[in-house]
Every structure is written in structure tokens, then in C-alpha cells.
Amino acid sequence: MEVTLERVNYHCHCERCRHARGPARAYVEEAVRKNLVRLGFSDHMPWPDDRFGLRMPCAEIQDYMEEIRRLKEEFADRLHILCGFEGEYVREERDYYEKLLAEPGCDYLLLGQHFCETRQGELINVYSLTDTAQYETYAENLVEAMKTGYFRCIAHPDLIFLNDLALDIHCERACDIILEGAARYGAALEYNANGFRRGLHRFVDGERYQYPLERFWDQVRGAHIDVYVGSDCHDPGQVYDEFVELAIDRLREKGIAARTDW
User: Fold this and answer.
1) d(C-alpha 11, C-alpha 98), whole Å
2) In a domain, 258, yes or no
3) Measured by CB atoms within 10 angstroms of the end CB, which terminus of the chain is less buried, N or C?
4) Number of independent structural domains in the chain
5) What is the Cα–Cα distance from 44 to 16, expressed in whole angstroms?
6) Which residues, including other chains, have CB under 8 Å from residue 17's CB and lie 6 or more apart?
């Protein structure tokens, strides 16, 4: 007998991030229309020096949390709303994560590693890798972040494989590092539906989605790692669309049960 999952989404952006469409209210209203029971906002974590760009300025943090608080109260009888941030892990900035987590309006942090940090402190944009050895640098970054306990879930842990580089021994090692780290530190991983929205792409190794990477998720089955499906929505219509449903079905086919509690 097939179990019907509660409808949830903990990876949601709104117009404050400067690259999504629509105010937070529009996402809440869509979540109610789609019968979600929980919706988590996770707009991109701002930085005082704007080092990563394309996100709200620090001056809007309190406004953002206050806006979500008002929506929580208004829709309390129809939807449980959470407020968080998706952000990169930078090892010398631990005080900043602790400050955000101490804010009364912040419920959680997602790790969204769009830049990785070398041991020498250099930041590398994961969308423009030049060497497959950098896969392992990225994986080591994720595990270092997992160890801190700051992040409730690791968003798109296989994002790095969107580069048109071979899925070689460095890819295999990076997958092992991430999965071993998640199991060791009890870190949840996100199966990200936005990769399906992006469609199939041609790579040096053939046609596939940029992510999720099937060989990575095939290894998750039986690994005792919590998995969540995240919409990673940047438009109200994506809060719980056909790609979220596709992601849930793909996991089910792999024998992986997506979690819905938080």
C-alpha cells in the first residue's frame, strides 16, 4: 500500500533574494492552495560585505523575519510557516551563523554551498570549476559544515556536478566523502527538484540532469541518512509543482523514503 506523504517544502525563496519572483505572501497563498502543511522560507543568507551577491542586503534581515512572522500569525490555522536562511559555510565566520541562529525569528539554516573554500581560504564558485579534483574540495567543505551542527539540512549536496567535467575517480571520492560525513554527523541531505526543472543537459559523459546525480543518490539507499525533497522555488508556482512530485517519485523508485517532519 502506497503511503501518501504530507506536503511540505523547506527550501523557498522570494523576491528579497533579488533573483526570485513574487513576495513571500504569494508563496504562502500558493502553499495553502496546494494543501501544504509546512512551508519554510530559506532566502539566501546576506553578508555584510556582499561577498556572494544576488541576495538581500543585511539591512533587510529584520524586515524579512518580521514579514514571515506576520504571515505565520495570519495563516496559523492553515499552514505552519518557518523562517530560515540558505547560506554558504565559510570557516572563519562561525560567529555570524551563531548570531543568526540566536535571532528569535530564525528557525533554521540550510547549507547551500554555491562557493567552496580551499584550505588556503580561497573561495571558488562551484558553477565554474576547472578541475575535477575540486569536487573533493567541495565535499570536504560540506563535511566541515556538517560537523558544526549549524545547518538543519544540506541543500543540493550534488550541485557541484553541474559542471561539464568528467564523472571520474574524483567524483566517486567526493560522493563517498559527502555520504560518509552525513552518516557520521547525522546530517540530512536534500534531493533538489530544481535540477529537474533545469532539464536535461549534454555533458562530456552523455546526457543527464545537472543534478540530482543518480549515481550519488543510488548510494544513499540503505545508508541511514535522512533525506528531504526541496523545491528550491524561485516563483510561487514552483512551491509544490510537478517537479517536486517527480522528485518524490524518483526517490520512491530508489527505495528512499523522503522525510516530511522538521
Assistant:
1) 20
2) no
3) N
4) 1
5) 9
6) 43, 44, 54, 55, 56, 234
CB 243 within 8 A of CB 204: no
Residue 2 has pLDDT above 60, yes or no: no
Beta strands 200-203; 38-44: pairing state: unpaired
Q: Is residue 259 part of a domain?
A: no
Q: Say if 235 falls within a structural domain.
A: yes
Instruction: Kindly state the helix (H) or strand (E) to which residue 196 belongs, with its residue range.
Output: helix 194-197
d(CA 19, CA 56): 10
pLDDT tens string 21-30 = 999 999 999 9
> What is the CATH classification number for the domain harbouring 79?
3.20.20.140
**pTM of this prediction?**
0.96
DSSP notation for 147-159:
HHT--SEESSTTG
Are 132 and 165 contacting, i.e. CB atoms less than 8 angstroms apart?
A: yes
Residue 187: alpha-carbon gap to chain centroid:
13
102-132 pLDDT, tens digit per residue, is: 999 999 999 999 998 887 888 889 999 999 9
Mean pLDDT, all residues of the chain? 95
The answer to whether residues 114 and 82 touch, using CB atoms and an 8 Å cutoff, is no
Question: What does the DSSP assignment read for 35-53?
Answer: T-SEEEEEEEPP-TT-SS-
Record the cell numbers describing residue 177, joined without a space.
566523502
CB neighbour list of residue 107: distance below 8 Å, 6 or more residues apart = 40, 82, 83, 84
CB atoms within 10 A of CB 91: 12
Give a yes or no: residue 260 inside a domain: no
Range of 48's domain? Answer: 8-253
